[in-house]
Description:
Helices cover 23% and strands 21% of the residues. It is an alpha+beta fold. It has one domain (11-360): Alpha-Beta Complex (Creatine Amidinohydrolase), CATH 3.90.230.10. The strands form six sheets. Strands 1-15-16-7 form a four-stranded antiparallel beta sheet, with no helix packed on it. Strands 5, 6, 8 and 9 form a four-stranded antiparallel beta sheet that branches. It is globular and about 45 Å long.
Amino acid sequence: CRPCTALIPCRQQQRWRRGYRRPISTSTSPRRSSHGAATAQVKPPSRRLSAYASNPERRGDARNPRPRGSSAEAQPGSGGGRRREPLRRGAVSARLPVPDHIRRPPYVGTAAVPEVCPDRQVHDGESIMRMLDACELAARVLHHAGAMVKPSVTTDEIDRAVHQMIVDAGAYPSPLGYGGFPKSVCTSVNECTCHGIPDSRELQDGDIINIDVTVYLNGYHGDTSRTYLCGEVDDATKQLVKVTEECMMRGISACRHGASFKEIGQRISEHAEKYGYGIDPFVGHGVGRMFHCEPIIWHTYDYEPGFMVAGQTFTVEPTLSMGSTQCVVWDDGWTAVAADGSLSAQFEHTVLVTGDGAEVLTGFP
């Protein structure tokens, strides 16, 4: 759909609101930045405007950005007081092949973004075992990819390693071909909030990188991500990464049969605000036979109705920012970066709701 600025969301914006995490450009006349990015702003879903974006002092809205997580001034190109160059794209290599015998998700072969499934899947014993297999593989692949993070390694090298490990296990890399996404993993470096496309850029000393792995195995998706430190990272950035992981685990601690979905965002928000971090407007989602389905998991204070049911699987994946939670989208249609160039970090687990809590299916080795 064409970008719009109306408060009533268009169909594409509604799709994003219902769980699809690709940000939607809402400016009618984007301008170009020095590295070829479209600087159209990404707004939270319209029903969230009053709760999320109307209080810039509390939320760190781009209309009134403020320093977060450090006493140092938060400026573009700075992470907790450390000067760095803005993220620039490298060359994107050709899409990697997948052997014919490997089962593909239904969306492969189409350029359209899949509709988010409205069903809230409740798994039986057999499907839980399949989810465990997919999630265990995703966790192993992520651990392998994280071990590669060091200065001079390219995100394209990480993508190749992830791709090979997944297909060697007889699985399909879920991002590959999803709505035209060209790679097998998302690699989001520094101010890239999410959906970074692996390319020829070399990781540099002091970078942070989120690696987001999803695999499709035996008809089920397992989804997980983690933010890694590259080389010598300053203390303010280490704190951002540490608190982000703590927020994820606090959100997961709210999960149990009969609990309100609102509790997840409340616990995450309370912890993030202690450190002055913003929470970027990207959501978790149901996952299983479908890559993205209900329920939608908000990581901020929210008004989403509904209660958890034992047997449900979904992701909890907060993204915290040192500065503005407003994003811009590069002209590749995927790469979302912080509008003010501030650092962000994300962690993600797939969890299974049980009667008295939640089981983390993608536990980090």
